[in-house]
Design goal:
The protein is α+β, with helices and mostly antiparallel strands. The protein has 3 helices and 23 strands. Strand 16 and strand 17 form a beta hairpin. The protein is rod-shaped and about 130 Å long.
């Protein structure tokens, strides 16, 4: 009996087409803190989770030279001192000779250069020994010390060392031990992936709504900032990495590493006529719904459809608000 088929009214509603991205919340800029001197961790001043200002003490690295390195550094100072004493005596003789014009000015200039190099060698040897012994030295106005200070204002996200751990310094030829990771948590980003089916519809600047697993009641808004050009394989699916910038949030406390889902709003229409997509029959390029005329009598009506979110579909033409359409009959399984 066709009259027994459920009816539903055509009503106004909002249709939002979204693309889903899965990922995590991360700081926009995360900094690895490293030491400029080698040794072992002597003291940790800032623990994980604390907020520190730029220049505040993070930890102290105690120089830990081997007995051979320390002895060698002391011997190098002594050798450089002996060399400079001899050069100073020679300098008096050279100045006397040049005044009497017994040697050429060029010869004296060459000696002066050697004398300056001897002074520099002694200075370098003393600086190296000072670093080994006290962990602190000033070179050309720059203080090089074993105290590691915060490079930025921000939170200590993690620490990779404990007191007593060895530290390799950051130099031009080696990466150096990562001591801590820091970030300013005012600017965060969502980093995740979208399916290749959706990536063609996305554009930078689109509005996004982010739901964080740990904060089910909060929705965080953001802006799509970056879409990668190269795909990745993830669990046998092809996905594209994306990045969403999250402005400073007042109502939600976001932490680095939170799992999150982002809905990227591709298209949105408010207060348009809608019907559930399940009641629409599509044949070739046309769409039809069934209208009840009288008990036991219905007719098929052509409608023009618009935007669809796969649950509701916009009716552009053919129906008006309050019209009643029939549900499709449920096929019984024999």
């Amino acid at each position: 009996n066709k009259d027994a088929l459920p009816k539903l009214k055509v009503q106004k509603g909002n249709i939002v087409v979204k693309a889903l991205a899965v990922g995590t919340i991360e700081p926009e800029n995360e900094i690895s803190v490293k030491s400029k001197v080698s040794g072992v961790v002597k003291h940790i001043f800032a623990e994980v989770g604390t907020y520190v200002r730029a220049g505040q003490l993070l930890l102290e690295v105690k120089p830990d030279p081997t007995p051979l390195e320390l002895a060698d550094a002391k011997r190098q100072v002594q050798l450089a001192e002996v060399e400079l004493v001899n050069m100073t005596k020679e300098r008096v003789r050279q100045e006397s000779l040049v005044k009497k014009q017994m040697i050429a000015a060029k010869e004296f200039e060459d000696f002066e250069r050697s004398f300056q190099q001897a002074e520099l060698r002694l200075q370098i040897a003393k600086e190296k020994l000072a670093l080994f012994e006290s962990g602190k030295v000033i070179i050309e106005g720059t203080e090089i010390e074993s105290i590691v200070k915060a490079p930025i204002d921000g939170y200590v996200l993690s620490k990779a060392v404990e007191v007593g751990d060895p530290v390799t310094p950051l130099t031009s030829y080696q990466e150096g031990t990562v001591l801590m990771k820091m970030a300013n948590m005012e600017r965060l980003k969502f980093k995740g992936t979208v399916d290749e089916i959706d990536v063609g519809k996305l554009k930078e600047g689109m509005v996004t709504e982010i739901k964080v697993g740990a904060l089910p009641s909060d929705t965080v808004r953001g802006t799509l900032r970056k879409i990668w050009l190269k795909a990745e394989k993830k669990e046998n699916a092809t996905v594209f990495p994306i990045e969403i910038l999250i402005p400073a949030t007042r109502n939600a406390v976001l932490r680095a590493g939170y799992s999150a889902n982002a809905s990227i709003i591709i298209q949105k229409k408010d207060s348009v006529l809608t019907v559930p997509e399940r009641v629409v029959t599509f044949r070739r390029d046309s769409a039809f719904v069934k209208i009840l005329l009288a008990p036991g009598k219905d007719e098929e009506r052509y409608i023009k459809t618009g935007l669809s979110d796969a649950i509701s579909i916009e009716v552009v033409q053919g129906l008006k608000e309050g019209d009643e359409v029939l549900e499709k009959p449920v096929k019984k399984i024999e």
